[in-house]
Amino acid sequence: MSIRASISSSIQFACLHCEGWNDIELDDVSITIEGTDTKRSKTKFSFVHECEHCGGKFKVVPHMDIACYKV
Questions:
Q1: Which domain holds residue 61?
Q2: Is 21 inside a domain boundary?
Q3: Which of 13, 36, 45, 61 is the most exposed place for a label (fewest CB within 10 A)?
Q4: pLDDT tens-digit series, residues 35-52
Q5: Is 71 part of a structural domain of the chain?
Q6: What pTM did the predictor assign?
Q7: What is the pLDDT of residue 32?
Q8: Which of 1, 50, 61 is nearest to 26 (CA)?
Q9: How many domains, in total, are found in the chain?
Q10: Left (φ > 0), alpha (ψ -120 to 50) or beta: where does 45 sit?
Q11: Quick one: three-class SS letters along 16-31?
Q12: Once rounded to an integer, what is the mean pLDDT over residues 22-34?
């Protein structure tokens, strides 16, 4: 089973060009429960972001893998 969710706060990413921090709001995040949906594309909600500091562009792939174990 995989779901789509939203994160209610921004996340900081370091620019791959200048290493400056960028606050990015993630509207849609693909979430996969480990071992249950291996066919879903992890890049479904990917997007290109332009750095606030240097203008360099980098691709963000908002995907989260979650694993649950019996304890």
A1: 2-66
A2: yes
A3: 36
A4: 776 676 778 888 999 999
A5: no
A6: 0.69
A7: 80
A8: 61
A9: 1
A10: alpha
A11: CCCCCEEEEECCCEEE
A12: 83
